[in-house]
Amino acid sequence: MNGVILDYEHFATHDGPGIRLVVFLKGCPLRCKWCHTPESQRQETELLYFREHCLGCGSCNSIFRQRPLISPSREQFKQIANCPVHAVSAAGKIVTAAEIAAVAEKEKIFFDEGGGLTISGGEPLFQAEFTLEIARLVNEKNISCCIETCGFGSYDKLKKLLPYTDIFLFDYKATDAGLHRELTGQDNKLILENLRKLDADGAKIILRCPLIGGMNDQLSHLHAIAELAEELPHIEAVHVEPYHPMARGKYLALGLSFDGLPETFPDADTVNHYIRTISANTSKPVLLA
Amino acid sequence: MSQWEIDREYLEHKFTDPEFYHGSPGMPLPELKTRLAEHFEKNNHLPHALIKAQLVAFTLENMQIKLSNCDFFPALAACPKKPLGGITNWGEKLLKRIFTPEELAVHADCMANCTTRTVNDYDHSVPDWDAVLELGFSGLLERVYRYEKDKMPEFAEHPEYQHFYEAVKTAYLAALHLLDRLICEAEKLPSLPKGKLLHEALTNLRNGKAGTFYEALLQIWLYFQISEYVDFIQTRSLGNLDRILYPYYREDIDSGRFTQEDIRYFIRCFMYQATAMHYKVGHPFYFGGSNADGSSTINELSFLILDEYDKMGIFDPKLHIKVSPHTPEKFICKALDMIRRGNNSIAFVGEPCIIRTMQKYGYSLREAQTADVKGCYEYCAPNGTVETAPVTVNAAKIIGLVMHNGVEVLSGKKIGIATGELASFKNFKQFYRAFLRQLFYQFDRSVEFIMRAEKYLDEINPGLFISGTFESSLRQAVDGYAKGAKYNNSNLWICGAATAADSLTVIKRYVFERKEFSLTELADILDRDFEGHELLRQKLLHDPEKYGNNLELPDRIALHFTGAVARRFNGKPNSRGGFFTTSLHASNRFSEWADKVEATPDGRKRGDELSKNMTASQGCAFNGATALVASVLKFDSSLFMGDLPVDIMLHPSEVKGENGLKAMHTLLMTFIKNYGHAMQFNVMDTEVLKKAQLEPEKYRHLQVRICGWNMLWNSISRKEQDAYIRQAERL
To answer: Would you say B57 and B63 are in contact if contact means Cβ atoms under 8 Å apart?
Structure first.
């Protein structure tokens, strides 16, 4: 079965337990304002151009001037491939689930102490059948599988993944429905329903909470995270994910604006405040992701 | 100022201040050297061992010494400026005697253009530390007398036996005289606790062996200084300190003689001796190992030593940790945590690999379990091995020799064999065969050279002190550097293996498969150092098909030619009663040789660093640490008894937090359990490195792992700094 992926991250140490191979699937139903993988939002292939690496050699026929460029033609792909230093590249490639499982198998020796494959995105549910096939195949190879999801999709899709998934790294982005819609483009009703259903079905869950200063780091949201962690018995831990500005280059590479997003990391006091506030209201471990 | 600050200040001058010995008893170094030279001229008709023993004795009896209430370890003026340096020149004379001028000219050419390095090596051996501690100088001397008595009936037929004993006795007797001198000086120290302790310890060591933890450290340090700086034989490990010192530690603590704080202070002062010497490649000792039942030897002293090292934030002595599946996770994680905090002068060496490899070569399980780790990450049977690393062949240069039919392109000298004009290679197989022929030729030539030269190692530089610690030497009345040691292996190193593998991959794909350019065109481009072909260079440089990414082709090529060398030489007898082993070790040649290596097909320009050890070429581990380790684990480590190290470069964000530390541990243990040999880390942030370049004064303590040792960031060249930054940028 084919699907579209962005790339792999080898030796990933913060996307599930142990050493993990992360495969980033392309396509996401949300448009989070702080998204740190903007090149994963669309399912179609897109042109990336990293100006700082460009030699100005013209090998690509200056194709980068055509950004944003979605679904390049065969001819355009050739031009992209001509770049000697990969300053222009195509974000997105079609691979089979078996290929992904084979990549994971090559790294299996590192998965002994709890590691494995993490399917991330984008949003894995956006290519649910493909995700299911990957999860099934790696399970056959006795490789642990984690799914990192925003939870926005039909519950049937999530439920099918349950037998093959060791941990769901489940994003929780805003408590207020209106704010959630404003920040991500979608309501959080379905997401919360799915989270509760997953919990009821006994899935192991780690709640992943991106916190962006001035956007979703209200005290009420921090309290709500803790409440949710207390309420749902299968949430094993809360991971706090403070904002980072490292995606700036990727926005610019896509030809998108980075305006309106902070250019700096939150300071240590702010991060400690997040962790302390949530920890104070839940017995579950609250960790910095 | 605290006592430690006062002591440290003193130590900072001990090895580097030219005025340090001013007014101290003994002969100033220039005078000492003159007298040694005169003595040598008068007596150079004697057998070498005897003359050297006399010179060593004269040095020990006359060099300046200095004791202080600020130092638990006496200062010997021979350290670090070796008085015997340049006195005998036996090596040079011998080369002229045993080789023809033509042979020496080829040898010199190959050394000058960095194709091979062939040297007499006295830098990779370890004394029998157990004997040194169990017997002390006086006990070792007594043992020589005992063996001499047994061998006496054969003296008439073998005067060399008598010379050997005489020389070793002279050396050890001189060590006792040195102790007498030191005791006299200690008596002059004010009766402060440190002076009193020093006097008592020196007296005990003069009359017997170490009885306390401090005396054991003092014995080790005195032996080390005498062997390395007077006897001119490098002591390539200060030993398995946590194991050999533990009984003294236990006894001192249990009897109340010393407190844990006292022990910590002794360790601190001991380790800082090495720090203060500022010796480029560092002084190693190692932790760990296995008991006979397979359990780990890591003990509370191991933790204590590591903790003191951590607190001081030093990088010399450099530390080796012998890791087995039974090594306590807590201990390894402590070391890994130090590394990720920047205190990274630590290399991990895998015991499963050592045990499997040594047993394959006929060593006993116990020898393998107790193998010494030495040098950068090498290992050998304990208590009786003289190992040398006399040959390095630069695999990256071999590509150029094939491209020019045996001619070294930068000098125009023909140092290789004729393997054919480029146009004659119709496919990659033919080119690769020529590569192997050139590679074997350089190894064969170097091995033949060293087979002849190593016969005379004991004549060039008799190993008096080290031989005195080896029972096998004493039993045979033969110097350790002849055939006296129980094991006498010689290591053959392959340098720049990944650069060569990547280059061969480019030739296979671009020349023979895609036909983007011909071999002749490629040779022309390389000869011009890619001038006018920067785009092509960038394309080759950024081509992801590189060794160290768990990819089929480049890894297979790397495995094949290195394995071919190993199979050709492993187990072949050397001229010292041992055999050859193979190693994938670069030392600092990956950097030092760079200017002499023409551009290579992987996109590397002349002057850019070669690949280091068996890690990916600089900045080419595109698929991260797991892929790199997976590539290295494809090697059969038992083929490379010399060593097979890998350097892992990580970004701090990859190893932060509990998960990050656990991931480092898993990565290491996966490597170790799968018979990986040695692993070392650099955890680096590009931004920090760039800031350190701009504001060096703010980063005076920033250190980087070079090869088997660390250096301060500010002490490496701008070019080397740039290479580290380029690598870090790829993370």
So the answer is: no
| CA–CA dist B349, B371 (Å, integer) | 11
Backbone angles phi, psi at B378, to 5 degrees: -70, 170
Cβ B205 vs Cβ B223: under 8 Å: no
Q: B215 near B132, Cβ under 8 Å? A: no
C-alpha to C-alpha distances, B484 to A287, B577, B641, nearest whole angstrom: 60, 9, 21
Residue whose C-alpha is closest to residue B172's, from B214, B230, B125 = B230
- Say how many CB pairs under 8 Å bridge A and B: 73
B670 and A107 within 8 Å at the Cβ level: the answer is: no
Amino acid in position B286: Y
Cβ-contact A28, A40 below 8 angstroms: yes
What is the Cα–Cα distance from B726 to B89, expressed in whole angstroms?
Answer: 43
Q: What is the pLDDT of residue A89?
A: 93
Phi, psi of B467 (to 5 degrees): -65, -35
Question: What's the pLDDT tens digit per position in B130-164?
Answer: 999 999 999 999 999 999 999 999 999 999 999 99
CB B166 within 8 A of CB B274: no
Q: How many residues does chain B have?
A: 731
Interface predicted TM-score of the whole assembly (ipTM), two decimals: 0.92
The verdict on A288 touching B (C-beta cutoff 8 Å) is yes
Q: What's the token pair of residue B99? A: 């080789």
Place of tokens 């050592």: B354
Count of C-beta atoms within a 10 Å radius of residue B506: 24
pLDDT of B666: 96
Chain A residues with CB inside 8 Å of B666's CB?
Answer: 18-19, 110, 112-113, 115
Residue A160 exposed, middle or buried by CB count within 10 Å (0-12, 13-18, 19+): middle
Q: In B543-579, which residue ranges form alpha helices assigned H by DSSP?
A: 552-569
Contact B69, B200 (CB under 8 A): no
DSSP character for B635?
A: S
Contact in structure between B75 and B178 (CB atoms under 8 Å): no
Q: Do A19 and B539 touch (CB under 8 A)?
A: no
Cα B434 off chain centre by: 32
DSSP B199-258: HHHHHHHHHS---SHHHHHHHHHHHHHIIIIIS---B-----HHHHHHHHHHHHHHHTSS
Closest CA to B705 of B393, B390, B340: B340
- Range list of H helices, B241-344: 241-255, 260-277, 300-312, 329-340
**CA-CA distance, B95 to B259, in Å (whole number)?**
55
Question: Which residue positions in chain A have pLDDT lower than 50?
Answer: none
Which three-class secondary structure state does DSSP give residue B731? coil
Question: How far, CA to CA in Å, does A24 sit from each of A3, A8, A37, A45?
Answer: 11, 6, 9, 13
Query: Within an 8 Å CB–CB cutoff, is residue B542 touching chain A?
Result: yes
Chain B interface, mutation test: which of A10, A167, A169, most B Cβ atoms within 10 Å? A10
Beta bridge partners of A117: A21, A145
Q: What is the dihedral of CA B234, B236, B238, B243, to 10 degrees?
A: -150
Supply B45's token pair.
């008709």
What's the DSSP call for residue B596?
G
Tens of pLDDT, residue by residue over A8-62, are 999 999 899 999 999 999 999 999 999 989 999 999 999 999 998 899 999 999 9
Tell me which H or E stretch contains A184: helix A177-184
Confirm or reject contact between A9 and chain B (CB < 8 A). Answer: yes
**Cβ neighbours for B2, distance < 8 A, ≥ 6 positions apart:** none
Contact residues, chain B, for A59 at CB < 8 Å: 535
What is the SS3 string spanning A210-248?
EECCCCCCCHHHHHHHHHHHHHCCCEEEEEEEECCHHHH
